[in-house]
Protein: FAS1 domain-containing protein
Organism: Corynascus novoguineensis
Amino acid sequence: MGLRLRAAVVALISTTLLSPTVQAVDLGSVLADQANLTTFRGLVKNMVESILKYHILKKAIDMPSIVKGDSIWAPTMLADRNFSTVTGGQHLILTKQPGGEVVLTSGFATRGTVVTEDLAFDDGLVQVIDSVMRVPETLDATARGAYTDLTAFVGALYAAGLYDEVAGWKDVTIFAPRNAAFQQLAGTFSRMDEADLRRVLRYHVVPGRVSHVWELRNASTLATADGSGDGTEVAVTRHTNFIYVNSAEIVQADVLIANGVIHLVDNVLNPRRPDARPDVELTTAQPPVFTPLGTATATGSDVPTPFATHLPCTGTLEENCQATSSQATGGPTGTSGGAASSNAGGALPRCTGLTGAGVGIGLAVGAVMAGL
Ligand SMILES: *[C@@H]1O[C@H](CO)[C@@H](O)[C@H](O)[C@H]1NC(C)=O
Ligand SMILES: *[C@@H]1O[C@H](CO)[C@@H](O)[C@H](O)[C@H]1NC(C)=O
Ligand SMILES: *[C@@H]1O[C@H](CO)[C@@H](O)[C@H](O)[C@H]1NC(C)=O
């Protein structure tokens, strides 16, 4: 099945847009001839296969059927546990803009726009897109490589010994406070014991459920991983275009990761204040729901970020990370521009996770198809 899919995808892309010489198979046979490269070949094979599977939707979706302003969660054929721990297969988000164009969201802040819609073939539809979609990665890799505003939260998970637990869950929704939210409470967190920190962090994670932003209904509640006290649920408030979790505003929605979705929020949630609700009339940011301790701290990229040093990447490892990063950015074949997208292949070190490092295997444009 893997082979048949691969052949079909490559053929379809070549006949529609690429020169017919683009063949993933050649890469495989070249590597197979190099005895010392067999491990690498295995990795590349797995990666190529997973990237292609991520471009094949389980069900055909014709673009005119999507309502303007709506988003759809589209499961793909990528269901290997190594790359996805989301029930039903890792997914893409399809959003129809008010202007009518359809934008796809994938991992690592990578987006693409459908440039040719609904090319029909025997078993489905091909949507030609202007960049290659990126398989969502772990929380750690996503924080380092694409959303550096997550480093305090992810560092805090490591500091509390919770990272493996949270990254290991299948299907999660995470409300992750951005770095500035931790910075303004630096004094409070430096005085917090580990048990409290664990409780606070667990209160940001909804296990067993992937809730995209459009599924967060006003006045609904979500059960968090903190089952230890009064604050076991968080509440959603919608007001005009704003969406809040307790009183924290969602400032960046639907960041896809290997095991679910992250929404970045502008305040740390407090399990002792489950009743916190936003003052929707406020024109400035909602105030913190913790008592700030110590001297007031500033926020911003020049200010030390609490917990960021707990990301497991130090000394010599750091150099290795740089190497990985430049490989990923440069790409083995120097793709011709099309694959460029906002933050993908960002300049920051990536220390762990090989998944996705091979984006740009020679595809300058992508296609999403369905129906095989
Ligand atoms: C493979 O690697 C080993 C050492 O790691 C080296 O001695 C050998 O010459 C290499 N073989 C080839 C064909 O490059
Ligand atoms: C998953 O990872 C394991 C160990 O890293 C590897 O042996 C296996 O082939 C991988 N499976 C897929 C489908 O990538
Ligand atoms: C949202 O829910 C709150 C109660 O939590 C209610 O006061 C408010 O009117 C609702 N807003 C909308 C737009 O329905």
About this structure: The radius of gyration is 21 Å.
